[in-house]
Design a protein that fits this description.
- By secondary structure, this protein is of the alpha/beta class.
- Helices cover 17% and strands 26% of the residues.
- The chain has a single domain, classed as Metallo-beta-lactamase, Chain A, CATH 3.60.15.10.
- The protein contains 7 helices and 19 strands.
- The strands form 4 sheets. It has a 9-stranded mixed sheet with strand order 8-7-6-5-4-3-17-18-19, covered by helices on one side. A 4-stranded antiparallel sheet has the order 10-9-11-12, with helices on one face. The protein has a 4-stranded parallel sheet with strand order 13-14-15-16, with no helix packed on it.
- Strand 18 and strand 19 form a beta hairpin.
- The longest helix is centred in the first third of the chain and has 12 residues.
């Protein structure tokens, strides 16, 4: 028994170094300074990028994504999903496409104009159209990415469960979600965050919800009145950990074993979300990309759970490696530091 999360006493389940095994499923949560970029490498060797960080003069985020791809031993991105059109989620796609081939694109439909960011969107839109060759596939709730399956491995599926405020339909005979009794809705969110693509990844017993920047009311639609998701083993918290997202009814319903803040040093990881995580019964560890400098006091998450313990220099990713049988997963920092292994539910 050890203290893994400064203010929470938990036990990590040491069941072997799954992160060093071949044929595993790997997820890289890349440091794009409060943007979005998650690289997935499948047991069949395919690479999937969800979002692409910021567009910067030095191509910082494109270089960091490319480095993670090289660390994973991949030479191209087979599938790229853009969850929504905020520039911290698709800005670097043009620069990245100059570094490595990107085969297939998926999005929620590309608009001609964008009220959330009229200044930057036109140029970034043009870069995206060039990279995607104007042939992106528009995802709808229920669509699955066309993934190769590794012989002898559990089935891997990645399904769109929400997009453009529409969520996956519930199945006949589902029971009401008891957590919904305490659910409170908020005012209408007109931003593109609420339109974000959300994905459900399943591999054997391992389950992961990848919600992009979904916000409060759409999160509630996913689990109320019926829970269409089930419980998760790993949860990258929505919208960088802001409290305009991460509805407590979603957190309680998903009941993750491990949560991840894909935050920046001065962005995301709200204190209210930290407090809500205290109430998640099966939670055993909380990780974050960056040590937060905006809390007005010491960050309670120990350095062994933080990829970048100081604001700069950054660039290290968090990595989740799911064992070939889909029964355990191991969290590490960077290239393999502080491995901690957890059983899947």
């Amino acid at each position: 028994m050890r203290i893994y999360w400064g203010w929470l006493l938990i036990a990590a389940l040491a069941v072997g170094a799954a992160w060093s095994e071949p044929g595993r499923l790997d997820l890289y949560f890349i440091d794009v300074m409060g943007g979005g970029a998650t690289l997935i490498v499948t047991p069949a060797g395919e690479s999937i990028l969800i979002d692409a960080g910021w567009d910067t003069d030095d191509n910082r985020d494109a270089r960091r994504i490319f480095q993670a791809l090289m660390d994973a031993g991949r030479e191209q991105i087979d599938h790229c999903v853009i969850t929504h059109w905020h520039r911290d989620h698709f800005g670097a796609i043009g620069a990245l496409n100059r570094m490595t081939p990107i085969q297939s694109f998926y999005d929620k439909g590309l608009p001609e104009t964008f009220a959330d960011d009229p200044e930057h969107f036109p140029a970034l839109r043009e870069k995206y159209v060039t990279a995607s060759r104007g042939q992106a596939t528009e995802l709808h709730a229920g669509d699955a990415l066309p993934l190769e399956q590794a012989p002898g491995a559990p089935e891997l599926t990645i399904v769109c469960v929400a997009v453009n405020r529409t969520v996956l339909a519930s199945s006949p005979g589902q029971s009401l979600n008891p957590h919904c009794q305490a659910c409170e809705m908020r005012g209408y969110d007109a931003s593109d965050n609420a339109n974000s693509i959300a994905l459900w990844l399943s591999y054997g017993n391992f389950q992961c919800f990848l919600g992009g920047d979904l916000t409060w009311n759409v999160e509630a639609k996913l689990v109320c009145p019926f829970d269409i998701l089930g419980e998760a083993d790993l949860l990258p918290l929505d919208h960088h950990g802001f409290d305009s997202s991460n509805n407590p009814v979603l957190l309680q319903t998903l009941n993750p074993t491990v949560a991840v803040f894909c935050n920046g040093p001065e962005k995301g990881r709200a204190q209210a979300v930290m407090e809500q995580l205290h109430q998640v019964p099966d939670l055993k560890a909380v990780y974050q990309i960056h040590k937060s400098v905006q809390l007005g006091g010491p960050d309670p998450i120990a350095d062994e759970f933080v990829a970048n313990p100081s604001p700069e220099p950054g660039g290290r990713y968090l990595k989740a490696s799911i064992a070939p049988d889909g029964n355990t997963f191991t969290m590490t920092l960077g290239g393999g530091e502080y491995p901690k292994t957890f059983e899947c539910k």
